[in-house]
Predict the structure.
Amino acid sequence: MQDIISLLGVGTAHDVCIVGICGMGGIGKTTVAKALYNKFHQSFEASSFLPDVGETMQNNGMVSLQESLLSDISKTSMTEVSHVDRGISVISNRLRCRRVFVVIDDVNQVEQLKALAIDRDSFVLGSRVLITTRDEHLLKQLPVDSIYQVQVMDEEESIKLFSLHAFKTYWPPNEEYLKLSRRVVDCCGGLPLAFKVLSSFLVQRSTKFWVSEIKKLQTIPPLEVQEKLKISFDGLNDDTERVIFLDISCFHIGKEMDLVKQILDSCDLFPDSGIEALIQRCLVTFNKKNKLMMHDLLRDMGRAIVGEKCRDSSGKWSRVWRSEDSVEVLRDESNQ
């Protein structure tokens, strides 16, 4: 947290500062932004926290978001906007009147920022803007002053957060639950959203129930977590990028980037731009050895998408990655 506080520079820098918070779905971007907003918003003349901007725009329209921002920074509940262009003009004028702290949460299109007049020239010196998104490229388009990448939690941090949800304390109550908690957080891969979802149905349950649910979790990730992660997949630019994501999730995790690009290029999938898009949307990463990596829950989500169309027969899937399924497909083909 101290790193992003330094990037934000509240009370130490007097120019306009725009900081992006980036990371995969469910990793805690909004939680970080809320903590910063709660810590600093009273230090400004006006402030606004706009949650779930992408979803709100889709459900209620851009004008509703403009009205919410205007209401916050003007400190009045009576703020009506006739159309988007008019809203941009009014917001720009209001932002120039006072030093503000604005948080724009879960942005998925740069046009949303433009419609909210999020531009350096709109703000008074000393103002601060935080933007959370899964798309790093979007932040570079604005551009922002700096980007904070939210990382998955280590094991000790994970156990503390999971225990807080499951037991209302910072550590499991006994050794048996500690061992089970370690197995749960290992399945979650340091993803805060998964801790919250799983703890909700493990709380006040017996250790026998925990063991059963952990076995289930190892093969079937929680639906709520998958749906949250799938937003990034659905938001990819085209089917080619989706195909590349599914191919990586099924076949190419841990393989050298150059080799994967050669394979994808032979399938006319334009891997240079496609893999770059996946990296910018935090769907894949690469390690120091230039090998492609993917969070386990993203991998499971991708494979679940492949299996959706025919759950009962892997032989009808578009991809098979387990050796036993491959044998079944070949056996079925040979019998036809």
